[in-house]
Amino acid sequence: MPEILTDPTARCKHGHRGLCFVCRTENLPRCAHGKTMYCGFCGGTVVRQGQTKAVHADRARAHRVATAFLRHPRIAEVLLFGSVARDGEGRDLDLILVTEESLAYEFMLLLDTAVLHHIPHGPDGYRRTSLREDIAEEVLSANFYDVLREAKSAAGAAKLDLFLFPPDWRNQLKALQDAIPHKDPDFMANVARDAVSLVRRPEYPGGA
Fold first, then answer.
1. What average pLDDT does the segment 20-28 reach?
2. Residue 99 CA to chain centroid, in angstroms?
3. Which of 95, 83, 87, 85 is nearest to 36 (CA)?
4. CA of residue 78 relative to chain centroid, distance
């Protein structure tokens, strides 16, 4: 285990201290497990004084990516959460693709099955974004591969982090939290807090 060196200068952009969701270590950009630290209050990435974060994405880029995804006939809305939703910029784009309830739960079931039975990475296997992309392509089929390729082109250097959720996902936070193998017990609550709608079909009555 790496030596734990607490750093009292480590703060997120709002001045809050770091918090590891695994070991609850505070005050340093990486915990004893080597995980990136996040602010337990606002969810922002924690950096030491004098450090800067790599920025690959902003709201404008997120909107271009979302517009590409909306070209798929089974996607009704695209929402943004994570650092770009909170701070306006970040290294990756965390996106919710809203689709039919049956497809969203097929996505969750396949993700859970893959993590539990087929991935040698243990509980953190779901973090492999390519896994979720593959499952989304299997569930949505049609032209999702072409749409994903267009979205990645619009994303540039920013990594895409995708989830398929049902239209009423805000009313199913506990069920989704249970379905997603995430170590942070407040993951879905934080997603609901941060999520903003980027684009949606005119006939779709949803929205954040």
1. 53
2. 17
3. 83
4. 12
Q: Can you tell me which residue has the tokens 């602010």?
A: 39
* Contacts of 23 by beta carbon, 8 Å cutoff, 6+ apart: 31, 32, 33
* Residues 45-81: tens digit of each pLDDT: 555 544 455 567 899 999 999 999 999 999 999 999 9
For residues 50 and 184, give the distance between their C-alpha atoms in angstroms, rounded to a whole number. 28
Alpha-carbon dihedral sign for residues 98, 148, 136, 180: negative
DSSP label of 70: T
- Residue 108 has a CB neighbour count (10 Å cut-off) of 21
Written as six digits, the tokens of 54 are 């790599």
Q: Write the CA distances from 159 to 7, 15, 57, 62, 72, integer angstroms.
A: 29, 26, 9, 11, 20
Contact 92, 57 (CB under 8 A): yes
pLDDT in tens, 152-180: 999 998 999 999 999 999 999 999 988 87
Instruction: Please count the CA atoms within 13 angstroms of the CA of 148 that sit on its side-chain side.
Output: 21
